[in-house]
Write a structure and sequence with these properties.
This protein has 295 residues and is an alpha/beta fold. The protein has two domains: 2-172, Rossmann fold (3-Layer(aba) Sandwich); 179-291, Nitrogenase molybdenum iron protein domain (Rossmann fold, 3-Layer(aba) Sandwich). Helices cover 45% and strands 13% of the residues. The chain has a four-stranded parallel β-sheet, with helices on both faces. The protein has a four-stranded parallel β-sheet with strand order 6-5-7-8, sandwiched between helices. α2 crosses α5 (138-155) and α5 (138-155) runs antiparallel to α6. The N and C termini lie far apart (49 Å).
């Protein structure tokens, strides 16, 4: 079966390979956010796709043969890194693409919540290299763009200047998005919130919003009745107005916190909607609209 599948991958890849005249650099990414940034940096020189949908839990993505086929035709693959998308290694290995360049986009970023002690199973799904949801700060998006530009330039030196120019233009846009977000956040009545998972640390840090607590007792462990009762006390004591959760978690905790503590539940994906240029930065405006109660 394995041999037949590998033959299928090779034949399918050959059939779909671009001609020399129309060839673009094919770039894969673990998540839409990295793909969208890559589209901004690459322009017309790249063809970009991503694996994880924004409605999926990026911690747990099933390794499918169709993903391996896609990656078998790619020149580069952009990973989140920091232990978040380890499933991507299985896709890359299964693609049998020995020419593929894997890029760790966490390179050079300022990391939050890096454990100061040894990580063990009792701590839940704690990442030993720090919180890996770093793309939720547009300032870090600018760093990612420069990392991507360096990778594109190495793979395609002919267009290196263009990649770097687009990365700097993107960095300027990211700065404007950050400054606009700070203004919006300062005007919002929401100054603190409770989240389901520890996905929002970089977003909160960037825009001055305090995450008071998480519904998960430890990362990756579903909420317990006892822990939710403690959350209710915290929410009432701190007058927390908002519970922010991802679309792939159960709604039970949110319903309980609404009933017992009066929290407004906002369901939002940590990832942007599309792989196209502009989607990454537009996502911040969408998040503020939801948190601020405008959608």
């Amino acid at each position: 079966m394995v041999r037949k599948f590998l033959i299928f991958v090779a034949l399918f890849s050959a059939l779909l390979a671009p001609t020399a005249a129309s060839a673009k650099m094919r770039v894969g990414a673990s998540i839409n956010d990295l793909a969208s940034i890559a589209s901004s940096v690459g322009g017309n020189e790249v063809d970009v796709f991503s694996i994880a949908r924004p409605t999926a839990d990026v911690h747990h993505i099933e390794v499918l043969p169709s993903y391996m086929v896609k990656v078998s035709r790619a020149q580069l693959f952009l990973k989140v890194g920091m232990g978040l998308d380890q499933w991507a290694d299985g896709i890359i290995d299964g693609s049998r693409n020995t020419r593929l360049i894997s890029v760790d986009c966490s390179k050079d970023i300022p990391r939050l919540e890096v454990p100061t002690t040894a990580v063990n199973a009792s701590m839940g799904d704690v990442h030993p290299y720090g919180n890996p949801h770093y793309w939720l700060d547009p300032r870090i998006g600018a760093i990612i763009a420069r990392t991507v530009a360096d990778a594109f330039s190495s793979a395609d030196p002919k267009h290196a200047d263009e990649y770097h120019e687009r990365a700097e233009a993107f960095a300027k846009q990211a700065k404007e998005t950050y400054e606009h977000g700070k203004t919006v956040a300062a005007a919002m009545p929401v100054k603190n919130m409770i989240t389901y998972h520890r996905s929002w640390s970089y977003f909160a840090d960037a825009f001055g919003i305090e995450v008071v607590a998480e519904a998960e007792p430890v990362p990756g462990i579903p909420p317990t009745g006892k822990h939710l009762a403690e959350i209710v006390k915290i929410a009432k004591g701190r007058k927390v107005p908002l519970f922010l959760q991802e679309p792939y978690f159960s709604n039970d905790a949110g319903r309980f916190l609404t009933r017992e503590a009066g929290l407004r539940v906002v369901v939002a994906s940590p990832s942007c909607d599309a792989t196209t240029a502009g989607s990454y930065l537009a996502h911040f405006n969408e998040l503020f609209a939801k948190i601020g109660g405008k959608s």
